[in-house]
Amino acid sequence: MFSIMEEVLMAKFYLDDEWGSPTEFALPTSRRFLMGRRGGLSDEDEEILNTIRKIEIKIAPLSETSKIKSDGKYDYLKSEMGMNIVIPKGKIEELRFIINLESDADSSCDFNVIDGFPNTDIKETSILNGKIKVAVNKTFNFIPVIGPMMDIVDVELEPWEFKIGNLRKVLVNFSGGCTTQPEWYFRNDVINKNELNVSLIIKKASGIKNIKANVRVLWSFNNGGRFNRKRKFGSDSREIVIYNEKNS
């Protein structure tokens, strides 16, 4: 589904408990930062830090985007992004996926995100076999498909199946629409299934021909070690293509 030429988001910054105060990830000073000690790294410390460095969150440089409706003045796009998560050892307990959308628009008022999936409300829905079908209603919001649906946008969409897991046991939050900076928060088992898909409904002025996104990831990691249990990390940002009129 996604390109094999992926952008890789790796740990670059330490973060405090409030996900702020980034300190650049640097092996020679890591022990003093984490433990308040002076001197070189012990074998155990170095092994743990190398494990953190090997965590990779991969995202395709080109999202799967299609136009679902146009009213002449505005176009409505469905854009899907997939993340593959490589965790050689340990467990990511929390993950924040942050997107900053940019376009060739004269004003940010000419485009924004209307809705995203998964969203906060979806966690209340029982999901069988780890999958759920999703459609777009006439107000351009994502809704779960449960039985016959009457309020669906009159366009043909391929069935969507999101491998999210059983959301009754995890916490998924979405920052909400009407923004160009959407964000997701995932917690617990849903993160460690190696693949996460997120989707957006984007409203754009019909004259906008290009939309790109700078994406970054923040996470808390637990490898079972004695000092790293609650440590938070952040990646640098990577640019991906959301929409290009020539390729749509």
Question: Any key phrases for this structure?
Answer:
mainly beta; 13-stranded antiparallel sheet; 248 residues; 16 strands
If you had to describe this structure to a student in words, what would you say it looks like?
The protein has 248 residues and is mainly beta. It has one domain. It contains two helices and 16 strands. Strands 1, 2, 3, 4, 5, 6, 7, 11, 12, 13, 14, 15 and 16 form a 13-stranded antiparallel β-sheet that branches. Strands 9-8-10 form a three-stranded antiparallel β-sheet, with no helix packed on it. The longest helix has 11 residues.
Topology of helices and strands:
Blueprint: E1 7-15, E2 23-24, H1 30-35, H2 43-53, E3 56-59, E4 64-70, E5 74-86, E6 91-103, E7 111-117, E8 133-136, E9 142-144, E10 160-161, E11 171-174, E12 183-187, E13 195-205, E14 210-222, E15 231-235, E16 238-244
The largest sheet, given as strand count, sense and whether it forms a barrel, is: 13 strands, antiparallel
Proportion of residues in helical segments: under 10%
Number of helices: 2
Shape: globular
- Average pLDDT rating: 80
Number of strands: 16
Radius of gyration: 20 Å
**How many individual domains?**
1
Succession of helices and strands: EEHHEEEEEEEEEEEEEE
Class per helix and strand makeup: mainly beta
Low-confidence stretches: 27-38
| Separation of the first and last Cα atoms | 16 Å
Beta-strand content: 35-45%
